[in-house]
Amino acid sequence: MVTAPFRVVLDANVLFPFSIRDTLLRAAAIGMYQVHWSDEILDEATRNLIASGRMNDDQAAHLMAAMRNAFPEALVRGHETLISSMPNDDKDRHVAAAAVKVGAQIIVTSNLKDFSPMPEGIEAQSPDDFLVDLFDLAPENIVTLLERQAAALKRPPITLDALLAGLGKTVPQFENDVRCFVRSRDT
To answer: Which domains does the chain have, with CATH numbers?
Structure first.
């Protein structure tokens, strides 16, 4: 069980881009935060992975099973009675309710407009802002995580530079901060 100091709910829209999902889950796996999601969030991510053509039904089911197995403590239950009292957009109230139920401080989402207002004590952050915050807390840990992430990708093989370039399409400030750190470290 991860005993990181803060809890985070990941919205479905940050779980279907591969590199973002991989980076976020690797950070959780090394204890930088406690990851949480609900069945509704995982179902939405599954639907989007299939609808976008990124995965077929079997691949998406395998991914979700792997995520559940890797983070058995992540699943939030019993939040359903809170959904109607959440102040944010109707379609995303289930995400805010899951955050309240588990005592999360942050919801990571690419759709910030639907997460305002938020219940007190919970902040919605973009994946870029969240990853920048994690990087600011432990830059060496994040660079090591990214180096391992790049090394794990074998079909096709990928360099750290290529991984960062891909991440930079959706998390540009994070990419920039990591590149600056690596340049200064390597000189």
So the answer is: 7-126 (3.40.50.1010), 133-186 (no CATH)
